[in-house]
Amino acid sequence: MRHAAFVQDAIRSMRRARRARSVAAVLAASVAAAAAGCSSMPEVADVKLLPSASSLMPTPTGEFAKSAVNTNRPVSPGDLVDAQGMCAGAVSSSGEPGATAMRGVGLDMTECEVVQVIGPPGSTQIGANQRGERTVVMTYATTERSGIYHFTNGRLTMIERGPEPPAPEKPARGKPARRTAS
According to DSSP H, which parts of 37-148 are helical? Predict the structure, then answer.
């Protein structure tokens, strides 16, 4: 019995010593950090423990930015594309895609609003779903916004992002010139 009690006391004292060393190490590190960088340490008010709500929201990259779309307005026949992906009289004044005031593509845009922003699609498929609603699938493969755009009843409902464009090649670096001793 005495031997068991002696072993238990030894274990307890080793645990206490280990805790004391841990506390001493943390205390020493804190004192060292405070002494080393008192002038460069931020103020307590500058430390943000929780992120702000705006930092949790994804920032638009300009590629698929949400635009201000009036979804209360009904879709008219002039907002729909034909089998070639063209809109009736929807070419902008400059004749180039993206020349309208809207620059991004967002859900609930009409078919022609997307064509005005991106340009004519590579292919267009027009059909109907199980409920008899008009469905259009426009595929863009050669633009910087390449992807498959799905419309239901004239409004954009889903975007499947296409492959990323190839990264621009970096210029080749020449060998550094040899220095000669003067």
Answer: 53-56, 111-118
> For each of the chain's 182 residues, which pLDDT tens digit applies?
566 676 677 777 777 777 777 777 777 667 666 666 555 666 766 666 666 655 555 544 444 444 455 566 888 889 999 999 999 765 544 444 444 454 688 889 999 999 999 899 999 999 999 999 999 999 998 777 889 999 999 999 999 987 766 666 777 676 666 777 65
d(CA 114, CA 137) in angstroms, rounded, equals 12
Q: Which strands, in side-by-side order, build the sheet including 155-161?
A: 123-128, 134-140, 147-152, 155-161
pTM of the model: 0.50
Residue 110 DSSP code: B
Long-range contacts of 130-133 (CB under 8 A, 24+ apart): none
